[in-house]
Amino acid sequence: MFWIFIFLLFNSVVTEDSMEKFKSCNNEACILIQCYFPVSEFLTATQNEIKLFEDFIELNHVFVSYHLCNDLSADNIDEVGACIYGVLFKLYQFDTNLTIHQRMHVHQAQIQEESIAIVIDMISAILYRVQSIDDTNQLEDFIQKSNKEEDVVVINAQSLTPKVHLDISRIILNYGQWFTFVYSTNINNRKTICSYDIYPMGNDLTLLICGMEDNIQTILEQQIAMKNTRSATIKRFSDLTYINVFQRTLPTLFYIYDNSTFTLIINKNIIIIPVNILNFKTIDIENHMFLHGPYPFYLYWSPKKNIFQRLGDHPSDELINILLNEEQENDLKNMYGMFDDEVRYISENCCSEIEINPNVHFLKTSNDYYTYREKYPKSAILFTVKWDSTSKLARKTFHSLSSRLNNYLPMIDIDCFDWTDICNNENIYQWPTLSLTDLTTNKIYQGSTNENEMALNLFRFSVSQPYEITNDSNKILAESLLIDQQVIVLARIQYEEKSLYDTYKKLVDMFLNNEHIFFMFQYSTESSCLIIKQKYGDIKSLFEPKTTIYPLNEDLDDLQTLIINALQISLIPFNPIDFIKSTSSFFIAASHTQLVQLDNLPAEIPLVWIDTNSPWILTINQYGHITYPAIIYINYSTGYVYVNSTLTDITTWVKAVQMELMTPSYELSSDEKPLQKEIDFNKQIVDEELLNEYSLIHQESEKINEHGIGFDMNGLPIGIIS
What keywords does the record list, in alphabetical order (predicted)? Predict the structure, then answer.
């Protein structure tokens, strides 16, 4: 009895509160809905469901109270009888004279989900005039009149189960301000069975979108994105991630601006919504650093990762496509580096749980670390911390690779949050750090958390070259770990010609320090040959992977020429690091807007533009902190990097750095300097065969230009001013 008293007291408070809000509203636009339920379970479930929409509903002057049928007056036996079999509504509204009028409606509902859906439908009917039309002619007339102003969504009422009805009613209440919804039993007068039809605004009845209930939210978001009013409702921070009370399901690009004059980029693959930051409350801006100026800039929202990423004022198509591809992938991977947590992710909630591989070693005591180091002189040790999102990505990749690499290399996982002393003793102050150790060296992995890239580096470290292929499964495993290797060379040596191994070993030693190539060998009953696999082919192969087979002999000079040709960077570079390392040139690193505003660039100095909003800029960022826009000169013969962020007296500065009269801003470490002879990019164009391929070069150059770096029709770097 005590709990019944508390329950009734709670409901009386809610009722009184809703009634008081209605009376204080004192406007003919205000409506009070009193809902009467046969059982308390229906009441509680409906109240909890509507609570999600409560603020939105009351903002539109609709107030809801909840009661049991027992609360109705016993004098009105008809009301009590009707309420037992469904939901009874009493609607109160002011007229123009502010006199309150009452209406009553009854809807049958024997199931809890149906009773909730009926209440939501009643609210939607009041807010949006949602109707139910079963007559075919009336429905067509209604659509023709309504879709002149809004998209019309016709819900198939033929097969609405209580659960589906509840889901649809939520959708209508949430998106009703952008669409005209109508229930009908005449939706499927054709072969295709649809849960709903959408008739786009201004089109005839034959142009419709047919869909099922599992994708209606996505389709409606796409339709809203095409409306001119799409930005009018974004007035607070939560509107960036929610449409009313439903979280956005599609990746969205917001253009944050503070000036009425702007031009949006064009990209058909993503929703782009302009947002005036002046409409936001000051506290919303202050509480979110990535909304701070300067403006304008683009802000990317990822529903999969529940994060924002600030992209700058003119993001490249390639960067947007990479983000969209990440959205579609099941595995999370970071393509841009191990130490990019602040750059790439504003939210920490980027990773699912790590699937621990039993082949990876963990520490139980601090002594275990030194025991493992002694037991496994050559090993891969990953140092991470729990709270860092890039550490989570690194651990996910590390454990995923262990099943393929554990026979080659012991792998140890250490959390520096738990083992602080060990990390301090090893001078680990950045996370994640992947240390590749053996008896004489301790090399730090400089790549990203991408699985193929990490697999390549760990495998190269774990084995000696040339690596022997002993059977087919061994070969398949090795090639799976070398997917990102630019050139793979396999020497197939006939058993009767084992002496060829000595020649091949000399060839391998000549290129042993070149990270772009990996050497393997295999004894065979077949004729001896040299198989060269190139990840990027040439113009003739349309830059697709290319495999070439050559005779294997003892002519070392001939073999060396084959390897040099295979290593030669293609005319159209696909890897920004390959291009930058092979081209001693001047780069202008700036956003598109900054580039347009620069009017003092000397015409006589050829500059290659690298867009700061593209992934290419991350290749430059590895050389240290740089303020953009900037002119950068990298001399790989000396390892010196010169940076000019003031952009004053550029001609004098260029002459000074070319003559090495200035102190370099940075100096590359020895392992960053090129390990092969520098390629003269300009000299390649003299090749007569390439001159006949200008049209293809031009097409490929346009593709590369989308990546944020410019080339002319000959495949040469574009001079910004010519």
Answer: Signal
Which residues have a Cβ under 8 Å from the Cβ of 519 and sit 6 or more positions away?
465, 466, 467, 489, 491, 504, 507, 508, 511
* Number of structural domains in the chain: 6
DSSP symbol at 363: -
Sole residue written with tokens 């002993």: 470
- Which of the pair, 344 or 211, is modelled with greater confidence? 211
Q: Which two tokens stand for residue 315?
A: 């993001």
Answer positive or negative: Cα dihedral of 609, 610, 611, 612: negative
CATH number at residue 35: 3.40.30
- C-alpha distances in Å from residue 49, one per residue of 32, 52, 86, 170, 213: 18, 6, 18, 9, 19
Q: Which of 223, 257, 286 is the last residue of a domain?
A: 223
- Considering the entire predicted model, what is its pTM? 0.48
Rounded CA separation 118/33 (Å): 13
Does 17 share its domain with 112? Answer: yes
Residue 582: CB atoms within 10 A of its CB come to 20
- Partners of 412 in the β-ladder: 361, 381
Do 95 and 142 fall into the same domain? no
- Counting every residue, how long is the chain? 722
Alpha carbons 153 and 139: distance in angstroms, whole number: 11
Last residue of a domain, one of 567, 597, 614: 567
Residue 712 resides in a domain: no
Identify the weakest region by mean pLDDT among 159-163, 381-385, 549-553.
159-163
Between strands 252-257 and 271-276, the pairing is parallel
pLDDT band at 341 (very low <50, low <70, confident <90, very high): very low
Residue 109 lies in a domain: yes
The CATH code of the domain that includes 522 is 3.40.30.10
Say if CB 616 and CB 708 are below 8 A apart: yes
Shared domain for 680 and 611, answered yes or no, is yes
- Side-chain half-sphere exposure of 268, counting CA atoms within 13 A: 0
Residue-range definition of the domain harbouring residue 433: 366-449
Indicate if 120 and 138 belong to the same structural domain.
no
The CA-atom distances, in angstroms, between 88 and each of 7, 12, 81, 85 are: 20, 17, 10, 9
Helix (H) or strand (E) holding 698: helix 694-705
Q: What residues contact 223, with CB distance under 8 A and at least 6 apart?
A: 151, 178, 179, 198, 200
CA gap 201, 495 in Å, rounded? 76
Q: Please tell me the least confidently modeled range out of 205-214, 263-272, 287-296, 478-487.
A: 205-214
Asked whether residue 720 carries a pLDDT value surpassing 60, the answer given is no
Instruction: Tell me the per-residue pLDDT of 363-422, one tens digit each, with 9 for 90 and over.
Output: 999 899 999 999 998 999 999 888 777 788 888 899 999 999 988 999 999 998 889 889
Which range (43-52, 505-514, 701-710) has the least confidence? Answer: 701-710
Asked whether 386 and 415 are in contact (CB, 8 A), the reply is yes
Residues 513 and 443 in one domain: no
Whole-number CA gyration radius for the chain? 34
In sequence order, which residues have a C-beta less than 8 Å from that of residue 352 and are 6 or more positions away? 332
Residue indicated by tokens 């990209």: 267
Highest mean pLDDT among 92-96, 139-143, 299-303, 434-438: 434-438
Decide if 310 contacts 290 (C-beta within 8 A). Answer: yes
Residues 117 and 33 in one domain: yes
Tell whether 335 is covered by a domain.
no
Question: Are 19 and 49 members of one domain?
Answer: yes
Q: How far is CA 569 from CA 561, 582, 620, 710, in A?
A: 14, 8, 19, 17
Looking at the structure, tell me whether residues 47 and 141 fall in a common domain.
no
**Does residue 251 lie within any of the structural domains?**
yes
- Label residue 202 by pLDDT band (50, 70, 90): low
